[in-house]
Amino acid sequence: MKSKFRFGVMLLLLLSSAACVKVDTSSKTPTIGSEIIDLSRARELGKLSDREYQELRRKVLASF
């Protein structure tokens, strides 16, 4: 009987402690990878010329 009670208490503690962990997935600053991907997409869609892409890519790489 005691082992069932202990197991129940341990399970309850484990489950309640897992709820206390908060992971912040909202990134307010873009990563270097996301910036390069955005520039690549813009170039593929014709929004940027190859020259503009290379220039902006250099700026992104220099800023990080």
Structure commentary:
The mean pLDDT is 81. The protein is rod-shaped and about 75 Å long. The chain has a domain at 28-64. 69% of the residues lie in helices and 0% in strands. α2 runs antiparallel to α3 (50-63). The protein is built from three helices and no strands. The chain has helices at residues 2-18, 32-44, 50-63. The longest helix is centred in the first third of the chain and has 17 residues, at 2-18. The protein has 64 residues and is mostly helical.
Write the layout of secondary structure elements.
Blueprint lengths: L1 H17 L13 H13 L5 H14 L1
Structure at a glance:
With 64 residues, the chain is mainly α. The chain has three helices and no strands.
Q: What attributes does this structure have?
A:
64 residues; mainly alpha; 3 helices; 69% helix
Q: Using the CA coordinates, give the radius of gyration.
A: 25 Å
The description of the largest β-sheet is:
none
Q: What fraction of residues sit in β-strands? A: under 5%
Shape: rod-shaped
Count the helices. How many? 3
Structural class: mainly alpha
Percentage of residues assigned to helices: 55-70%
Order of H and E elements:
HHH
Q: Give the distance, in angstroms, between the N- and C-terminal Cα atoms.
A: 60 Å
Weakly predicted, low-confidence segments = none
Mean pLDDT: 81
The quaternary state of the protein chains shown equals: single chain
How many β-strand stretches?
0
